[in-house]
Amino acid sequence: MTVRLSPGDPAPDFTLPDAHGEPVTLADLRGSKVILYFYPRAATPGCTTQACDFRDNMASFGAEGYRVFGISPDAPATLERFARNEGLGFPLLSDEDHAVAEAYGAWGEKKNYGKIYEGLIRSTVVLDEQGTVSLAQYNVRAKGHVAKLRRDLGLDA
């Protein structure tokens, strides 16, 4: 059974390479509000829709002090192509062994067309400036998720 995070939980620390192979460490982001969104695979239709929704809302997230990071099991080179092709203005992080996804409850049993398998569960975890979970959403839909997230964060008044 996958353990999921809840508001008030401390966020598991991590260091992951970004699309350029540079390490990003969660502890270095203390003092900022952070949105971590986990997605299954770069350049697929649903993941592209979701990434572009985040891209199109970056100014408003930034204005409210949020930093956005996409996390997937893709290799850095794949992430670099995806970010370049879609004009994404936020970091994508490579979690090839899915250890971070597991720690955040974003890896587990999935069912697709009647088949059961292990994989990435599309999820978003929002952290406050101290690195504490303020919101955790699992099994989110690619389309419309960013609009729902904005509402849930009180950004659409």
Automatic annotation (TrEMBL):
Key words, A-Z: Antioxidant, Disulfide bond, Oxidoreductase, Peroxidase, Redox-active center
Family: Belongs to the peroxiredoxin family. BCP/PrxQ subfamily.
Record InterPro entries: AhpC/TSA, Peroxiredoxin_AhpC-typ, Peroxiredoxin_BCP/PrxQ, Thioredoxin-like_sf, Thioredoxin_domain
Protein function: Thiol-specific peroxidase that catalyzes the reduction of hydrogen peroxide and organic hydroperoxides to water and alcohols, respectively. Plays a role in cell protection against oxidative stress by detoxifying peroxides and as sensor of hydrogen peroxide-mediated signaling events.
GO aspect biological process, one term: cell redox homeostasis
First-tier enzyme category under EC: oxidoreductase
EC number(s) recorded for this UniProt protein: 1.11.1.24
Reactions mediated catalytically: a hydroperoxide + [thioredoxin]-dithiol = an alcohol + [thioredoxin]-disulfide + H2O
Keyword match Oxidoreductase: yes
GO cellular component: cytoplasm
Active site, per annotation: 47 (cysteine sulfenic acid (-soh) intermediate)
Assembly: Monomer.
Residue stretches making up the Thioredoxin domain: 5-157
Classification lineage: Bacteria, Bacillati, Actinomycetota, Actinomycetes, Micrococcales
Protein name: thioredoxin-dependent peroxiredoxin
SUPFAM superfamilies listed in its UniProt record: Thioredoxin-like
One GO molecular-function entry: thioredoxin peroxidase activity
